[in-house]
Structures are given as C-alpha cells and as structure tokens.
Design brief:
mainly alpha, two-stranded antiparallel ribbon, globular
Length: 278
C-alpha cells in the first residue's frame, strides 16, 4: 500500500507543477518558476518558526507571500533600476534562497527541516507521515491530501481563468484592449505558482521542483501547440514520469525525485526527436 501512496503523491506533485508550468513556458517566464521555487524557502522557515508545524496553513501563506514578494522585487529591479530581467531574477532568488538556508542553519534546533531535504525533497518518506482521525482511523499520508487540495485549487483557477489566461498569454496587447487586466492575472499566476511550489516542497525540494515545473511543458510544447492538448499531455507526462521514476529508482537503489527528473529529461529528448521527424 505504501508503494501506491508514494506513486500517487509523486503523480499529484508532478501534475500540479506541469499544469502551472505550461503557462510559465508559454509566457516565456520559465525562470520565474525557478525564482519562486527558491525564494519561498525563507517564508517556509519563518512560518515553521511561528507555528512549529509543516501542516499549518500559515506555511502556505508564508511561502505565498515570499513568492509574490520576489515577483514584485524582480519587476522593481527590471523597470525602476533598469536591470536586465535575467539578472534581476538571479539577484533575487539567490539572495532569498541563501537567506533561507542561513535561517535553517541558525534555527536548526527549533524547526524540523533538513537543509538537504529542502534542496532535494524526501519523497521516499512522505508516505510515513500518516493522517489519523481522533478515533485512530488511518486516512493515508498527509502529503496526499495537501497535494490533492493544491490540485483542486489549481484546476479551479485554470478553469475559471482559462480564457483570460489564454488571451493574455498569446496576445497581451489585445487582452488589454478588451479590458482584461493582464497584470492582475500575471500576479494571480505567480501566486498559484507559489502555492504549487510550497505544496510540492516536501516531495521534490526547491531544486527539483523547478524541473517538474519546466520540463513537462517544454517537452510537450514540442509535440503540440494546442493549449488544451498541451495541458492534457502534461498530465500524462507527469503520470509516466512518476510511475517509471518509482520503479526505476527502486531498481537502481537511487533517490526517487531525481530519478523522476532524469526520466523527464530523457522524455524531453524523445519529444525532440519526434518533433524533428514530424
């Protein structure tokens, strides 16, 4: 049963990241996902210091605030100080991520957060953190319900905002001319990216979650240019990497999350060869 729980948790984490990552790729702001994934670390640490629990809603709020903060800081450096976008991203996410690592080291006795796990995740052990009712009924791992809730939020956001995100992604000037607040939807997308990042943080860590955001969407964009198909193919991509990642990592006796990302990279090569031959 632990095998099934682990695979489902991995699949939910991958699907969440792949759906959000599709819009990051299409908007050509994939590295914003990288910046947000790394910059949420100090927010998570501070929230853990306040609550002492990894399951508190304050944890998501703390990560969300720092995720939105880095978006504003990047825009400020780019527009007000005339720093190039890639340099602004590099300055902000490296500073905030380093600050998070320093905070983890300084408060290591007060928070249950290992620096290595914050980088690479701990997918192999998340199924051991069980949610039980007051009467002792086994409901399964807490990570499953956290990721399921994140998926429901993501799907609700993407369904409600589908046409607005579609127009503002492919033709922002036209979107503004018909009254769509492109800036508002941009920051909503950044907020959802922050939510997704913190939901998958324990599973994949700050580094590997970037690959889960970018690689599936980049791979499937080589196969199709239709948005609906892209989102659907990304879900299939996520499921394939999760299932194969578990069994191959078991066979090789390697960490599961890095194995999933390695498989995703190989599937990208397959998508590239397929796109060149069609």
């Amino acid at each position: 049963m632990d095998v099934l729980w682990t695979i489902m948790i991995a699949a939910l984490a991958s699907i969440n990241c792949a759906l959000v990552g599709s819009y990051l790729i299409l908007r050509k702001i994939a590295m914003m996902g990288d910046a947000i994934a790394h910059s949420t670390l100090p927010g998570i640490v501070l929230a853990l210091l306040i609550t002492g629990s990894k399951n508190s809603p304050i944890l998501i709020a703390g990560a969300g605030i720092t995720g939105i903060l880095v978006t504003f800081l990047i825009a400020f450096l780019e527009k007000k100080i005339n720093i190039q976008a890639d340099a602004a991203i590099g300055i902000n996410f490296t500073f905030l991520f380093a600050l998070g690592v320093v905070l983890i080291s300084f408060f290591s006795r007060k928070i249950d957060l290992d620096p290595e796990c914050s980088l690479y995740g701990e997918l192999a052990t998340v199924s051991l953190d069980i949610w039980r009712t007051s009467s002792g009924i086994h409901l399964g791992p807490k990570a499953f319900y956290i990721l399921l809730a994140a998926l429901l939020v993501n799907l609700t956001f993407l369904i409600i905002g589908y046409k607005y995100l579609f127009v503002s992604t492919f033709d922002p000037q036209f979107a503004q001319s018909i009254g769509i607040h492109t800036t508002r939807w941009h920051y909503c997308l950044m907020g959802i990216t922050s939510l997704t990042t913190v939901a998958t943080f324990e599973v994949a860590g700050a580094i590997l979650v970037v690959a889960l955001l970018i690689v599936p969407a980049a791979s499937m964009y080589l196969v199709t240019k239709c948005l609906k198909r892209l989102l659907f193919y990304n879900i299939l991509f996520a499921i394939i990497t999760s299932v194969s990642g578990y069994y191959i990592s078991f066979w090789l006796n390697s960490a599961m999350a890095p194995t999933m990302v390695t498989i995703a990279g190989l599937l990208f090569l397959v998508a590239f060869v397929y796109s060149k031959n069609n």
